[in-house]
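Q: What residues go here?
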């Protein structure tokens, strides 16, 4: 809990021993303001070209590093693996990456690169220790033990719990507004852009989309989702507005996304988030 405001979560996936068909080896990810560190302990993945269809003939390029840093993504992305994969992804809030490493997240927008291009030496040593560890539980402990003392030194005093994006965006805007150097709206927005890599308006869009996602998941447990009502409840002008934003962040309309979460193996990240 002491890493609140720094780590959003850790996702691990192991398909060794699972007989997946080629079309089940895709992984779909939404656009996100977060930065990531990804490890592949077994196997490797290929990144699909932006907008490429998830087919056997889709354009894709290998992720050359077994430990990669990802900046915020302003568009949805997808990967494919030719065989079994065991991997882990650390989800870091972008302002925390800036405070901890000095890196500007915006410089790595829509990019997945070797960690050595971005992170300081002590971080690279942590990454190698995680790669050498034998269990996922042990890997998470190594990550926590590395980050916790460093985060306590640099964390903003008024950090707000980040159960969801809306909490984080509110805390980030508050921290920017209370900074000692300049309090004009323009200065606040410039500060947020430097810390998070994206403007405050975009970050608020992510928080609204996440709220819609969770409310849709909860509503469907009881009955069919009423998309028009949900759209206005979370602050969209109408259902068409919700659909446009859903396509921009996930690549699909809300109904298409819901169906794929239920039936498509490649949407496992959404099921974890759900």
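A:
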């Amino acid at each position: 809990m002491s890493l609140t405001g720094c780590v959003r979560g850790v996702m691990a996936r192991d398909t060794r021993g699972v007989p997946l068909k080629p079309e089940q080896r895709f992984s779909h990810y939404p656009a996100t303001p977060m930065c990531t560190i990804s490890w592949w302990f077994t196997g490797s993945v290929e990144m699909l070209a932006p907008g490429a269809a998830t087919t056997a003939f889709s354009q894709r390029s290998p992720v050359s590093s077994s430990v990669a840093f990802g900046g915020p993504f302003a568009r949805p992305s997808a990967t494919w693996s030719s065989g079994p994969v065991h991997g882990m992804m650390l989800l870091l809030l972008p302002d925390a990456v800036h405070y901890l490493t000095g890196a500007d997240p915006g410089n790595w927008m829509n990019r997945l690169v070797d960690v050595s291009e971005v992170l300081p030496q002590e971080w690279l040593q942590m990454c190698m220790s995680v790669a050498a560890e034998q269990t996922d539980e042990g890997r998470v402990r190594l990550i926590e033990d590395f980050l916790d003392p460093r985060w306590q030194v640099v964390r903003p005093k008024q950090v707000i719990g980040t159960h969801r994006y809306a909490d984080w965006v509110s805390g980030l805007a508050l921290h920017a507004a209370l900074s000692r150097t300049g309090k004009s709206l323009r200065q606040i927005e410039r500060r947020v852009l430097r810390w998070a890599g994206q403007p405050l308006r975009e970050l608020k869009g992510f928080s609204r989309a996440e709220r819609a996602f969770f409310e849709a998941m909860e509503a469907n447990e009881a009955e069919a989702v009423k998309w028009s009502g949900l759209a206005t409840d979370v602050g969209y002008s109408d259902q068409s507005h919700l659909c446009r934003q859903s396509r921009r962040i996930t690549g699909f309309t809300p109904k298409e996304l819901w169906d794929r979460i239920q039936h498509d193996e490649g949407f496992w990240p959404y099921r974890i988030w759900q």
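A: Context that may help when evaluating the design: Strands lie at 7-14, 26-29, 35-42, 46-48, 60-62, 67-70, 77-80, 86-92, 112-114. Residues 200-220 form the longest helix (21 residues).
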